[in-house]
From TrEMBL:
TPR repeats: 60-93
Keywords, sorted A to Z: TPR repeat
Protein name (Swiss-Prot/TrEMBL): Tetratricopeptide repeat protein
InterPro entries, sorted: TPR-like_helical_dom_sf, TPR_rpt
Length: 439
């Protein structure tokens, strides 16, 4: 009996020692796995994962650490293979967060269901609530952004991500007063955060507090936000009508970014505000020097040169537009080339015109007729002028052109009928046309 008891005791000791050895081995292997995950050594990490899986396939830690390894390498789908199992074995907050974060990164359609389930377990988890907030921002669910941010602030009133989200939320609603309040609170917590500084510049500019806006934008000069901050400052000075400072920062921006179309367009905005034509010549010099092309800008400048009868300068811009786009059309370019007697080019451009309304049809017929008239193609000119007259018989200019072309084509009978038709509506014109064309 004593021998049996002794044997049982020895067996128990042996099993205990063996079990403790397994436990120690598992613990050491787990430490090794964690160590190599931190070192980002995939091969050795997977080696210890397989060892641990053989020892106990129901423990969550090996799956969690290996999932984290793939997560930090941005292989989110592979991370999910491990984290899904880890979460099924253990619903610790860290495990659920990393699992949900990987779902978020892969735009998984089940993300919202999974994060809501996790928040039932940890309703006051800051990182889980913030992850849900980031999801609503990512998917542009603005009402949900508001409610999610408010929930976070209800138990963490200085959470900077929630404050920043509300600053952007109210910015989109054009409630700049509340937007200012939230971005100011966010900057009290992280006063050197460049993204917050940039948004502060945007928000205060919208609320027309231009000096305050420039205060934030100027902090970002020579940072990764440099280009857009400089252009924000330029806009603010233009809005303040501080032209000297406007030009200083425009020149600074162009020295740094000589091919910046955005900055050149700021000069065009200055021209629209001041109507100082020297600004247009300055833009012309900048575009020429820096070899910049922008269809919208070229069309605007071409039109402005046309308006003041600088036809050759206007032609320079229209030539480039046609060179870049064989289907280019504008009403001003048609007229510009007619006035320069470049009739073939004018006719090519007008052939690209899409007629959307009566005004377009009137323009097309009128200037197509003029082109044919100037090319001495009298029958074609008559065709277009007659159609034009049928559309708009009250336009004295159209009547003059039609009368003139009828005279060229010796159609005196039709000419007299035409002149007679305007006797009551335009008596003065009637008398002039009658004396000129009817003998």
């Amino acid at each position: 009996m004593k021998k049996l008891s002794l044997s049982i005791i020895l067996l128990f000791i042996t099993v205990s020692i063996f079990s403790q050895g397994i436990i120690d081995f598992f613990s050491n292997s787990l430490d090794s796995l964690e160590f190599y995950v931190e070192k980002n050594d995939t091969i050795k990490s997977l080696k210890f994962f397989n060892i641990l899986k053989e020892l106990d396939s129901t423990r969550y830690e090996p799956y969690y650490f290996t999932g984290y390894l793939y997560y930090q390498n941005k292989n989110y789908n592979r991370a999910l293979d491990y984290l899904k199992i880890a979460a099924s074995y253990n619903e610790k907050e860290d495990v659920l967060y990393l699992f949900n974060r990987s779902l978020f990164e892969t735009d998984d359609k089940n993300f919202l269901d999974k994060i809501n389930y996790s928040l039932k377990i940890y309703p006051l988890s800051l990182k889980l609530n913030k992850l849900k907030l980031f999801y609503f921002e990512k998917t542009k669910q603005y009402d949900s952004i508001f409610s999610s941010a408010q929930k976070i602030l209800s138990f963490e009133d200085k959470d900077v991500d929630a404050l920043f989200s509300l600053a952007k939320y109210y910015y989109r609603l054009q409630n700049y007063y509340l937007s200012e309040n939230y971005i100011t609170e966010a900057l009290k917590i992280e006063n050197s955060n460049k993204n917050y500084l940039f948004w502060a510049g945007k928000i205060f500019s919208k609320s027309k507090k231009y000096d305050q806006s420039n205060f934030y934008f100027k902090k970002l000069i020579d940072s990764e936000y440099d280009f857009y901050s400089l252009n924000g400052i330029i806009d603010n000075y233009l809005s303040k009508n501080t032209i000297d400072s406007f030009e200083i920062f425009c020149n600074m921006a162009l020295n740094k970014y000589p091919d910046s179309i955005l900055t050149v367009k700021k000069f065009f905005n200055l021209y629209l505000k001041t109507k100082n034509f020297s600004v247009i010549f300055k833009i012309d010099t900048i575009l020429e020097k820096n070899k910049i092309f922008d269809e919208e800008l070229f069309e605007n400048i071409g039109r402005e040169f046309f308006i003041v009868d600088s036809l050759n300068l206007s032609k320079k811009y229209y030539d480039r537009l046609i060179e870049k786009n064989k289907n280019y059309f504008s009403k001003e370019s048609v007229q510009n080339y007619i006035l320069l007697n470049e009739l073939e080019k004018s006719e090519n451009i007008i052939s690209n015109m899409v007629l959307k309304n009566l005004s377009d049809s009137t323009f097309f017929l009128k200037f197509k007729g003029i082109i044919k008239y100037k090319k001495d193609e009298n029958d074609s000119a008559e065709f277009y002028f007659e159609k034009l007259y049928s559309l708009n018989d009250k336009d004295t200019t159209n009547i003059k052109y039609l009368a003139s072309i009828f005279n060229r084509n010796k159609k005196f009978l039709k000419l007299s009928d035409l002149i007679e038709s305007i006797k009551d509506s335009y008596p003065d014109l009637y008398e002039r046309l009658k004396s000129k064309y009817i003998q």
